[in-house]
From TrEMBL:
It catalyses: adenylyl-molybdopterin + molybdate = Mo-molybdopterin + AMP + H(+). Keywords: Magnesium, Metal-binding, Molybdenum, Molybdenum cofactor biosynthesis, Transferase. Its cofactor is Mg(2+). It comes from Ferrimonas marina. This is Molybdopterin molybdenumtransferase.
Length: 598
């Protein structure tokens, strides 16, 4: 069984703990569980045991009734319940089946102990005195290793290393794992009768189908450094220099060759940043040196000026001196020939500075995706025109403009297209001829959508889907020649939500970004939130740090899909996944911060 098959039904992260006996796994868990609870993480433990384990005692009714032949013994009080089942199997019980028994709506995490050989992400626990081999050397799913001081890890080990006695650090690691975790993508449905008829897709199924059609742009352009902001790097940036170029001083102070027997040094020169002292320093000599100035040959250590006393040309230092202190080695930030940035990286402020620090004034970037947009509907008026009776101002084109600009797209704005088929065909032809992607809003549901549907049928291959989500249930997607087409629903909030879930990842993939997954975080619900089993609910939320340093989220209140005000108040979407009907106050939920787009 593969990892994806094993965890296909899991809606919360599952982390295994693997250790040989004697490592202190239970001792650690007895401290780790309260630590995680205190941070708001509720968890289930799943533990492998020997074949005849008992949780009950002879003489207790439940024990006797089970022994008398009850296939399942469920015992319950106002506080707790226990279900005991007699399930003899050959070998070990099936972990997938056991995971299915856990009530996942009540926990944020499942910790699994003792299924060492199964394909699960795991944290390895190791103590040198136990004298057992490492597991990670043979198990690529180990995510980190918590060990004691006496453990010697091989140099080749690149896993995060934790102190097995540092419970807080292990809890941080577990929370980091939870934050990165994504549910296993459901396999796209085959053309079952039921599906083709209803065309109801899960969010993930819709996204998988769309992404499968998006081919990254490969055309490259050289642009000036300043114009490369928010563009995507076409090729790996290999550093043409060492950064810093020379070994230099990190302090204003005195540079010299460290000698524990030397009590004072003779100052032979003063070195400013941008200059250098050409002679090798002799034993007992020092230079007065400024931050950033190159260290003279022979000098390896700097003492800051505040700890030095110079009289005439003699200098003495106060306090202990570490050999090599306050010196930045040539290439310690980025070495000559090292990869400074990977291809497919979006250039932000830090990358702009990094490219500048390498002297790369004309980075090669990928062409920006061209996106044509227009709004449809006779009721839709441009905001700079007087509002006609029974009409609304066109807001969708402007929210799309905003989000596309943030994503670094070139926008072709075709305005508002009137509701007739000829106008629609013309607009779509014009859009598809110029753009990589065409976005429209409105006209994809069952009502007055005939014009755009007819026009699309004439020009391309478009499918009208229902996505099991709210808002944004109707979605049209397909191709107009080589151009991708998205028909977003007309309701203003639905436009934004559908854009975030489907258009944003597609455009980031098209733009050549390698890392285009939207950021998702776990937050504690500050109130109970309702949804419906079978659809993903995207509520507008306000997330902020709670009193105990935890992310907390509440909804913005009324959630009508025409209420743009709710988007403006929000700083994230709260995601209530398909299997859940509600989230109680105090439970944790996924949120998708708006940071990238709004
Ligand atoms: N019988 C059904 N009716 C509806 C269904 C359904 O499944 N069966 N789905 C509902 C959902 S959910 C949505 S969302 C909407 C989507 O409808 P359309 O994509 O066809 O959009 P329109 O009907 O053209 O407009 C809906 C709404 O949005 C306003 N709108 C349209 N364009 C703009 C714009 N550019 N700027 C601002 N607002 C715009 C329009 O005036 C309507 O109020 O269908 C439901 N109905
Ligand atoms: O789900 Mo519609 O997308 O209600 O607005």
């Amino acid at each position: 069984m593969t990892l994806n098959e094993l965890l296909a039904d899991c809606r919360v992260p599952v982390l295994g703990l693997c250790a040989y006996s004697g490592t202190g796994k239970t001792t650690l868990l007895r401290k780790l569980i309260p630590e995680l609870n205190q941070r708001g993480v509720r968890l289930a433990m799943l533990k492998h045991a020997h074949c005849n384990f008992e949780v009950d005692k002879p003489g207790k009714d439940s024990y006797e009734l089970r022994k008398a032949g009850a296939d399942q013994m469920l015992i319950a009080s106002s506080k707790r319940r226990a279900l005991m089942m007699e399930r003899p199997v050959e070998g070990d019980p099936e972990l997938k089946e056991l995971l299915g028994l856990v009530d996942q709506s009540r926990v944020d995490l499942i910790l699994v102990e003792g299924f060492k050989k199964l394909p699960l992400p795991k944290l390895e626990l190791h103590r040198a005195e136990v004298g057992k081999p490492f597991v990670f050397t043979d198990d690529p799913l180990i995510q980190g290793i918590a060990c004691d001081e006496a453990t010697q890890l091989p140099d080749s080990c690149t896993l995060p290393q934790l102190d097995i006695n540092d419970v807080a650090a292990i809890a941080d690691f577990v929370q980091g794992f939870m934050a990165r975790w994504q549910p296993v993508a459901l396999t796209p449905l085959g053309p079952s009768c039921d599906d083709t008829e209803r065309k109801q897709l899960s969010v993930q199924q819709g996204l998988d189908r769309i992404l499968a059609m998006a081919n990254p742009i490969t055309e490259q352009q050289a642009v000036s450094l300043i114009d490369s902001l928010n563009r995507v790097l076409a090729e790996e940036t290999v550093s043409p220099i060492n950064v810093p170029q020379h070994t230099n001083s990190a302090m204003d102070g005195y540079g010299f060759a460290y000698d524990p027997t030397c009590e004072q040094y003779r100052v032979v020169a003063e070195v400013f940043a941008g200059y250098h002292y050409p002679e090798p320093l002799q034993p007992g000599e020092a230079v007065k040196i400024m931050t950033g100035a190159p260290m003279p040959a022979g000098a390896d250590t700097v003492v800051m000026r505040e700890l030095a006393q110079q009289e005439g040309d003699q200098v003495r230092f106060e306090g202990p001196i570490e050999p090599g202190q306050n010196v930045r080695q040539a290439g310690e930030d980025i070495a000559l020939g090292a990869t400074a940035l990977p291809a497919g990286k979006r250039i932000g402020a830090a990358e702009l500075g990094l490219l500048a620090s390498l002297g790369l004034g004309q980075p090669k970037v990928l062409r920006r995706p061209k996106v044509a947009i227009f709004s449809t509907g006779d009721e839709v008026c441009a905001p700079d025109q007087p509002l006609k009776p029974n009409c609304i101002f066109d807001s969708n084109r402007f929210t799309l403009h905003g989000m596309l600009t943030k994503l670094g797209c070139e926008i072709i704005d075709l305005g508002i297209i009137e509701d007739n088929e000829a106008a629609m065909v013309h607009a779509l032809e014009q859009a598809a001829a110029q753009a990589d992607v065409v976005l429209t809003s409105g006209g994809v549901s069952v009502g007055d959508a005939d014009f755009i549907k007819g026009a699309l049928a004439k020009l391309g291959q478009i499918d009208f889907w229902k996505i099991a989500q709210r808002p944004g249930r109707p979605l049209a997607f397909g191709t107009l020649g080589d151009t991708l087409f998205f028909g977003l629903p007309g309701n203003p909030v639905a436009v934004m939500v559908s854009f975030m879930q489907f258009v944003q990842p597609t455009l980031r993939k098209l733009a050549g970004e390698r890392d285009w997954q939207p950021q998702r975080l776990r937050a504690v619900a500050g109130e109970s939130l309702r949804s419906r089993v079978g659809r993903t609910e995207f509520l507008r939320g306000v997330a902020q740090l709670g009193a105990v340093g935890q992310l907390q989220v509440v909804s913005t209140g009324h959630q009508g899909s025409g209420m743009l005000g709710s988007m403006s108040k929000a700083n994230c979407l709260i995601i209530i996944e398909e299997p859940l009907a509600q989230v109680q106050a105090g439970e944790s939920v996924w949120i998708q911060p708006f940071a990238d787009l709004l």
